[in-house]
Sequence to fold (503 residues):
Amino acid sequence: MTATSRAASDSLVEALDVLIIGAGVSGVGAARYLTTEHPAKSFAVVEARGVAGGTWDLFRYPGIRSDSDLYTFGYEFKPWRDKQAIADAPRILDYLNETIDENGLADLIRYRHQVVSAAWSSEDARWLVDVDRSDTGERIQISARWIFCGSGYYDYDDGFSPEFVGRERFAGQIVHPQHWPEDLDYAGKQVVVIGSGATAVTLLPAMADDTAHITMLQRTPTYIIPLPREDALANTLKKVLGDERGYALTRQKNVAQQRLVFELCQRFPKAARRVIRRINESQLPEGFDVDKHFNPPYNPWDQRLCVVPDADLFRSIRKGKASIVTDRIATFTENGILLQSGAELEADIIVTATGLNIKLVGGIALSVDGRPVSFPDTVVYRGMMLSGVPNFALAIGYTNASWTLKIGLLCEYFCKLLGYLDEHGHDSVWPVADPEMPTRPLLDFGAGYVQRALDTLPKQGPEAPWVMSMSYYADRRLLRGDVADESLRFANARDRRGDPLSV
Fold:
């Protein structure tokens, strides 16, 4: 009897068909799909934190919102009924909690359950999962036939913060957006936000009216485009056709629109640069140095475009409440930041909106038959499984479109794969990659948080099903097509008795 068998036979070990890790948008979506597609299967959702919501509850900085429209960031099965298309975090949390309530998922979520490790036994065709419970201080074990990891790829403990020379000299307060103090008082104060990504461009207009002045200090500009916070056509369609039909049509429109913009930017980068520049120039004060502060050295969509709803960032700049400085930091000083140009930015508060860290599958230690899984030595299959790792799915969404568009397709395929195993009498499945197949980094994306982590991530191959596709239309064909192909291997109890492998 293996260690997994001994543990699974212990009455203290709960046995499940599926263990879902994470109660954010991915995990809640997977739970709903399982409830509807496989109601007879037993499953639970384990969440390390004390509430559901993932990113949308963790981050508490002013103005936090999605930079994707909720008609595509929302679930296909649940219409987005709010008027806001670019929605703030409280509205997104309400939507997620409604999904939990409407699908009876509340009793299936185990809060303050942190997965530490998971060990696969081929003999038993099960995972033995070690879970730390922060509410009781004990470690428990769960036996599961499948693991669906919906925890995303961010490190939820610590964000990225570079080493700043002289940091200890600064007499004011330094804050990272991932650990925003609830009692931070920035009224009437000088604030400098270091960074130029989505968080920085959200913070500036959200804080500007209350500060004495707020400055975004960037080393490199980012492409920034304004979009209406409310989608007038979507709201009209919902009013005329009803929530469900109006939502479905808007979703199709916005998926096509997102893809069109991305492909145009990739195919005609010079033209895209000119269009974005003209838009920026039209929103900024006369004489503003657009080329210095809004002209990135890379092409549009080599990194994610930043969206500003109702042009709020530009409005704050026009009002004189916010400004942008493009320079490099020489050192922190007692009163602020000395720049390499020799200028000094005075500050009472410095916000280091310098990005996030990647921690794949939440840092869980995986092993297969006693051998640790080395993620860089695996190749991703259909964007959700790893070569050589049985009965394990991970959810990674799009970097160039709404995250949830991909998650929905992955959940559909996951449920079909479970049905396929049941129909053919299999209990385990894993992808097998040709060792001679050329590979490349998992994500073709220039963002700093991705580039810093590439050597810790799985690889992707040159073509489907081994690519990490960033095209909804390509994924829809692949994931809604045939369930099995020559890259998958299947096994059952008979195989483990020495009978020929059933594929």
